[in-house]
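Thread: "does anyone have the structure for this chain?"

Original post by V.I.:
We have the sequence but no experimental structure in hand. Need at least a predicted one for the grant figures.
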Amino acid sequence: MPIIESSYRAPFPFRGPHLTTILARFGRNVSPLNYSRNRISTPDNDFLDLDFVKNKHSRIAILVHGLEGNSESTYMVGMATELGLIGCDTVCVNMRGCSGEINKSFGSYHSGKTDDLRLVIDHVSKDYSEIIIVGFSLGGNQVLKYLGESGNSLSEKIKIGIAVSTPCDLEGSAMELKKLNNKIYLQRFLKSMKSKANQKKTQHPSKKLDIEAINVAKDFHEFDNLFTAPVHGFLDAKDYWTKSSSKQFVSQINIPTLLVSAENDSFLSVSCYPIDEAKNNPNFFLEIPKNGGHLGFLTWPAFKGASWLERRVSAFINEKSH
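Reply from O.Q.:
Generated one for you, tokens below.
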């Protein structure tokens, strides 16, 4: 019954969901990392840009960002910095179209796209004896789905999985983000995603894409119906959400895996917390701090040093490493 009582206690200014979410993204001062970029080719003649921090360790942590993030996202840099201190090389994955250059194929990335993650794992496996995978938000959904769907075929080199602020039920999360209190986040996501959809229309003019309707999409249901689903081979948004949600794969995870999602994360519906799955899978550890927002978990002083989340992840890795 690995449901963990959380040690996180939010300082008074950061107990609400929105201030901690926004400040964690825009207010934290993290020192930039000296990444070494490596571009790898995909089987469909596309590319992925991987940003490494190498210090000749025998284990590597693969970090997977959230929706419209990249290797420069504050949470990615902060986590890579912390994991370097406990003896991990790191590689921050930039999903297709997120590295500063539009990808070549018509499709890009989505919440359930695990084949690119598998490609990254294969790429680093030749150089490292142990692999840890850490995913944030959408990236967390990819990580949990990958670990579960791989089951007993998972590489023995993959020792630990970690997911943070994860929409394990994509439909539930999409419905939450439609609510008025999340309007600022939804509009920011849609602006970026619509811009990329327009680039795809220009890049692939022969492809069928109702760009006029996409440009006026009001929420994820409309956008995913018009773009994400048809471009990536799903029937519609419902089909995409149903097949890509990680919650259904959690029961099949067979390595130590931690999910940390705040109870007051305004991006997540009640269905995004896989409580029953955690109770029935001894390998899956669920921690639900009362506060923390979405990828927040600020500590005091708020903008210096490692966050509670980064220390929590490193502690879990140290605890489960053999």
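V.I.: this helps a lot. Strands lie at 3-4, 36-41, 47-53, 59-64, 89-94, 130-136, 158-164, 257-260, 284-287.
O.Q.: and The first helix runs from residue 17 to 26.
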